[in-house]
């Protein structure tokens, strides 16, 4: 019996938008995340943005500090 996996909502577009708005490259963003204690490499972060990997809550908390935004900015448009 073939099972189809339902694709979950992802916030990749919102992550990319926030990063682009801040003017950071993925490399620079990952360096800032590492300074906050999140050991995330650029390839892992790229997978967050592409929706291949679900982002951890601790990374969202750190990104909120970096971007100085609200949590709503991460979930923008996902409830439509």
Mind explaining what this structure looks like?
The radius of gyration is 13 Å and the shape is globular. With 80 residues, it is mainly α. The longest helix is centred in the first third of the chain and has 11 residues, at 12-22. The mean pLDDT is 89. It is built from 4 helices and no strands. The protein has helices at 12-22, 26-35, 42-50, 57-67.
Question: Notable features of this structure?
Answer:
single chain; 80 residues; mainly alpha; 434 Repressor (Amino-terminal Domain); 4 helices; 0% strand; globular
In short:
By secondary structure, this protein is mainly alpha-helical. Helix content is 51%, strand content 0%.
How far from one another are the termini? 32 Å
CATH classification class:
Mainly Alpha
Q: What is the number of helices?
A: 4
Summed up, the domain count is 1
Question: Helical percent range?
Answer: 40-55%
The rough form would be described as globular
Count of extended strands: 0
User: Which stretches are poorly predicted, pLDDT < 50 over at least 5 residues?
Assistant: none
Rounded to the nearest angstrom, the radius of gyration is 13 Å
Class per helix and strand makeup: mainly alpha
By CATH, the topology is: 434 Repressor (Amino-terminal Domain)
SSE string, helices as H and strands as E: HHHH
Biggest sheet record: none
Could you tell me the mean pLDDT?
89
């Amino acid at each position: 019996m073939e099972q189809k996996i339902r694709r979950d909502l992802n916030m990749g577009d919102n992550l990319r938008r926030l990063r682009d708005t801040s003017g950071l490259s993925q490399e620079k963003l990952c360096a800032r995340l590492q300074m906050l204690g999140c050991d995330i490499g650029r390839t892992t972060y790229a997978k967050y943005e592409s929706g291949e990997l679900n982002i951890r809550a601790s990374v969202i908390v750190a990104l909120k500090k970096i971007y100085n935004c609200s949590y709503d900015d991460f979930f923008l448009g996902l409830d439509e």
